[in-house]
Task: inverse folding
């Protein structure tokens, strides 16, 4: 379980990005993080693995407070956290297999990583993961020859190669078309269910979040203003998260259709209010 207690981040400029954020994410739960641009979503994710140093608070993964470990110990602890990035963060000139194996760098010696000579067990693991994400036949293709959806699948496989206890996912569908976005979110949710992995997904597409995540946390000015199930998002909660707007799904002012995209596996439709929320967070 991940436990975040009173997490805060204030930058040297005096700007406060996070204030008193407290969230528990139990084993197997997928939490969607939503909010307008600048609300602190990416900062929160980066504080968890300390790509950004928190100013105050605790971040406990199991019995370890990640906010308190030394720089030397942090390298070891980061093996426990898989990160999936919006822009994939692949090494374009390397093959798909080599990119996936880079997820094992924290487990091998410097010289093995330098020469990219990984143990046979790691290579077998990488092939299994590529098969799981549907890229087994692409193992020897260069990363820069892949489509956006394929690159994101490589990023997922690389994160899983760490054998993580937690997944952090930063806007995984922002650069993808709607169909590919659903495929990627479906893959993430299926893998988390299979492995009972907790995950935090920073996602700007509110209807997509409603379709795939189990719980939504809304941030506004670095503070939690909503924490509940996807169906709990209504006119008032959307206003709390994104600010004043006409969230009435029955009004058509010529800018929005009353109905946009599918939001649940049962085929219900998202109101225009959620489309406006998506635009506000983009």
Result:
């Amino acid at each position: 379980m991940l436990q975040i207690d009173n997490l805060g981040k204030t930058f040297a400029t005096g700007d406060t990005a996070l204030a008193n954020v407290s969230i528990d994410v139990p084993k197997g739960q997928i939490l969607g993080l939503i909010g307008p641009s600048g609300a602190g979503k990416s900062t929160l994710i980066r504080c968890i693995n300390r790509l950004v140093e928190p100013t105050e608070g605790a971040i406990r993964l199991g019995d370890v407070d990640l906010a308190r470990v030394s720089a030397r110990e942090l390298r070891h602890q980061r093996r426990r956290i898989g990160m999936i990035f919006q822009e994939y963060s692949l090494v374009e000139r390397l093959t798909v297999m080599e990119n996936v194996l880079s997820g094992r760098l924290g487990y091998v010696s410097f010289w093995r990583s330098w020469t990219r000579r990984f143990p046979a067990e790691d290579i077998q693991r990488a092939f299994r993961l590529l098969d799981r994400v549907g890229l087994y036949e692409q193992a020897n293709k260069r990363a820069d020859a892949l489509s956006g959806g394929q690159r994101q699948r490589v990023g997922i496989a690389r994160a899983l190669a760490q054998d993580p206890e937690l997944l952090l996912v930063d806007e995984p569908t922002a650069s993808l078309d709607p169909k590919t976005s659903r495929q990627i979110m479906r893959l993430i949710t299926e893998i988390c269910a299979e492995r009972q992995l907790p995950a935090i997904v920073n996602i700007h597409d509110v209807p997509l979040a409603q379709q795939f995540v189990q719980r939504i946390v809304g941030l506004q000015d670095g503070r939690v203003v909503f924490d509940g199930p996807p169906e709990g998002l209504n006119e008032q909660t959307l206003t709390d998260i994104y600010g004043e707007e006409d969230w009435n799904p029955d009004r058509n002012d010529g800018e929005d259709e009353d109905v946009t995209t599918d939001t649940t596996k049962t085929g219900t439709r998202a109101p225009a209010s959620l489309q406006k929320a998506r635009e506000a967070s983009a």
Remarks:
- Residues 178-195 form the longest helix (18 residues).
- The first strand starts at residue 2 and ends at 10.
